[in-house]
Amino acid sequence: MVIMATLIISEKNKAAEAIAKTLGPVIVIEKTKQLKVYFIPSKDIYVIPLRGHILEYRNTDAFKSWTKTSPRDIITNPSAIDKVPNNSAYSYIKTLKEYSKITDHCIIGTDADIEGCNIGIFDALPFVKQMNPNITVSQMWLSSLQKNEIINKFKNLIAPKYSWGESGEARAIIDAFIGFSATREVTNTLRLLLNKFKIRFTSIGRVQTSLLYLIYLREQEIINFIPEPYFLIDADLLNGSIVIQAHHQFNPFKKDQESNARKIFQKIKDERVGKIIDSSKKIIRKSPPMPLNTSKALVLLTKKLRIPASLAMQTMNTLYLNKIISYPRTDSDIYKLDFNHIDMLQKFTSHSQFQNYTKNLLKNNRINPTIGKRDMGDHPPITPLESLELNNSRLESDLQKKVYNILARHYLALFGEDALESKQNLEVLIKDEPFKSQIVSLISPGFLEIVPFLKSKYDTEIQIVGDELPIKEIKLLEKETTPSPRYTDTSLLKLMEKNHLGTKSTRPVIIKLLQTRRLTERIKYNYKITDLGKFIIENLIEVWLPFLKPEFTKSVEAKLEEIKNKKRGMNDVVNEIRHEFLQLFDKFLINKHKLVSKINNYKIDYNIPLTTSSCPFCNTNPMKFINLKNKRFLVCSDDNCKQYLSLPKNGTLKLLESVCSICNFNIFKVVLRKNNKPLTYYLCPKCWNESFKEKSSKGFCSNCEEYRIFKGRCIKK
Question: Rounded to two decimals, what is the model's pTM?
Answer without folding.
Answer: 0.80
